[in-house]
Specification:
mainly beta; Immunoglobulin-like; 2 helices; 10 strands
Length: 132
């Protein structure tokens, strides 16, 4: 089960001149029923979740820049609600393009949390901009 979810979560980009997908950070629950991660797809940050079944219709994704200089708007946590879609083979999931959904793109370290209601689905994951 865990390997199937990891494979579904890390599906490679379509065959073309695009660079392959690279996992920057990921997590799977002990049961393997929920996996999420931060990926580099075609040079952009992709925030993704995969579940073994349709456990919920929507989830909340929160992103916050860690210790920005001067604080202000860049230190604010920004959250959005996103739906899950059938991925095939009984799995469900979602892929969020960071650049399209979150306005803070300054260099630095970012903290990402996947939630169901107020409860985190697992540990926070981190990535750094600009991407390597």
């Amino acid at each position: 089960m865990v390997l199937a979810l990891i494979a579904a979560l890390a599906v490679a980009a379509p065959a073309s001149s695009e660079a392959p997908t690279k996992a920057l950070s990921s997590y799977c629950s002990p049961s393997g029923d929920v996996c999420f991660g931060i990926f580099k797809r075609a040079g952009k940050v992709s925030l993704e979740i995969t579940t073994a079944a349709k456990y919920f219709k929507r989830y909340t994704l929160c992103v916050r820049r860690v210790r920005p200089l001067g604080g202000g708007a860049e230190s604010a946590q920004r959250c959005g609600s996103f739906p899950v879609f059938r991925q095939g083979g009984g799995t469900w999931g979602s892929r969020v393009n960071y650049v399209r959904q979150y306005p803070v793109k300054s260099p630095g370290r970012y903290r990402v949390t996947w939630k169901l209601g107020a409860t985190a689905l697992g540990p926070a994951l981190y990535f750094r901009l600009p991407l390597p």
